[in-house]
C-alpha cells in the first residue's frame, strides 16, 4: 500500500506543528512508522487517506462515531445548522434541547453545562467539586486519562502511556501535592486516602479505556460509591468514552451505579467538538451566574456541534431497544474469533471487551485489570499487528494502550475481512515467538 502523499504532508507538518501532529498518539511512533496516514474522507465504517487508500476504521474518532462516519441524519442536521450560523456567543434553543435530552438519558444528571471538549468538562467538574466540599485534594486512578489539565495529568494514560510516560512536565509541585493516585481496583488504598476526609472528589473512568480497555469489578464500583458517600467525597464518573456507548445512560446505567457528577464528550457532539459536565442540581447551581464557581466559553454550546450531538443522541434514544444489542453482538463476534486465532497461532494475548469496545493486550497474563497488568504487554507484537492490519486496509488505534471501537456501520463483511487480516498478523507474531 502506497503512503507517499501522507509522508510528504507529514514532512511539511513537522516544520509547522510540534511533532507534526496536534495530538501525540497520531504520530504513529509507538507502532514503528516514520509517518502517520493523513485522513481526508470518511463514510460509514470506512475512511480514505490522502493517497486514496481505503480502510475499515476501528478508531471511530476515538469513540464518538457510534453511527459511523457522516450518517445522513447527522449531516442533514449539521447542514441546516451551518446555514443558520456557525457561532453566536449567545444562547440558542438547541442547547436547551440537547441539555434536556442528556438529562432524560442520564437520570443522575439533573443539570448540565456544555463545554467545548472533554478536557474542559473534567477540569470544570473538579473545580465545582472543590467548591462544594471546601476541600483541595482530588483522587484519581493510575493509568486513567481525564484530559490534559494539570491536576488530571498526574500518572495518566492514553498518549502519555503510548509515548512511554505516566506524567507530564510543566506541572507544579503544588498541583502534584493535591493530586493523589492509587491503582485501579485497590479498594483498601482508596479507603486509606478517603478516610482522612480531605479529598474533594474521586474522579474515575467507570470503564477505563486509556490504558487499554479494562472491565471493572461491579463490586469494586459499588464499594467506591459507598466510600465516597460515607466520607463526603464527590464521585465523578468520567464518561467521555463510556457515555452513550455502553448504554443510553452510559456505564452508570450499565452497572446501576449513581455518581454525584458526570463528565461527557465524544458522542454528545456526534463527531464534532463538544464536552459537558453535570450532576445534582445543588452541586451544579454553584456555577456562575447562579453561584461563584466560574465557567465560560465562547464556543460552549456551539450550534453546529450541538445539532450534531442532538441528532446522534436522538437516534440512540429512538433505537435503544435494539441498537446496543446489535453493537455488542458485532463486537462479540469479532472478539470471540480473535481469541480463537490467538490460541491457534500461540499468540500470548488477553482480549478485554465491553459493549462496543475491546482491546487486544499482547501479554502473557491471563487477565488485565489495572495499569501494571497493561504495562506487561509486548508493544513490538502490537506494532506487528497494527502494521499488518494497516497494509491490509484496516486502521486500528496506533497504540497498545487504547481501545478499538465498533460502529453501527460496520458490516459482517467488514468484520470477516478484519479477521482475515488478524489471522495474518497473528501468524507472523506466532512464528516470531517460536523463533521461525
Task: Tell me about this structure.
With 436 residues, the protein is an alpha/beta fold. It has a domain at 72-316. 41% of the residues lie in helices and 14% in strands. It is built from 15 helices and 14 strands. The strands form 3 sheets. The protein has a 7-stranded mixed beta sheet, sandwiched between helices. Strands 1-2-3-13 form a 4-stranded mixed beta sheet. Helix 12 (320-344) packs parallel to helix 15 (412-433). The chain is globular, with a radius of gyration of 21 Å. The chain starts with a helix and ends with a helix. InterPro entries: 4pyrrol_synth_GluAld_NH2Trfase, Aminotrans_3, Aminotrans_3_PPA_site, PyrdxlP-dep_Trfase, PyrdxlP-dep_Trfase_major, PyrdxlP-dep_Trfase_small. Pathway: Porphyrin-containing compound metabolism; protoporphyrin-IX biosynthesis; 5-aminolevulinate from L-glutamyl-tRNA(Glu): step 2/2. It is found in: Cytoplasm.
Throw out a few tags for this protein:
transaminase activity, 14 strands, 41% helix, 15 helices, alpha/beta, PyrdxlP-dep_Trfase_small, porphyrin biosynthesis, 436 residues, pyridoxal phosphate, 4-stranded mixed beta sheet, 7-stranded mixed beta sheet, glutamate-1-semialdehyde 2,1-aminomutase activity
What is the element layout, followed by pairings?
Blueprint: H1 4-16, E1 39-43, E2 46-49, E3 54-57, H2 72-84, H3 93-105, E4 111-115, H4 118-133, E5 137-141, H5 159-162, H6 173-178, E6 179-182, H7 187-194, E7 199-204, H8 218-231, E8 234-238, H9 250-255, E9 261-264, E10 275-279, H10 281-284, H11 303-318, H12 320-344, E11 350-354, E12 357-361, H13 371-374, H14 379-391, E13 394-395, E14 404-405, H15 412-433
Parallel strand pairs: 3-13, 5-6, 5-7, 7-8, 8-9
Antiparallel strand pairs: 1-2, 2-3, 4-10, 9-10, 11-12, 12-14
Helix pairs in contact: 2-11, 3-11, 7-8, 12-15, 14-15
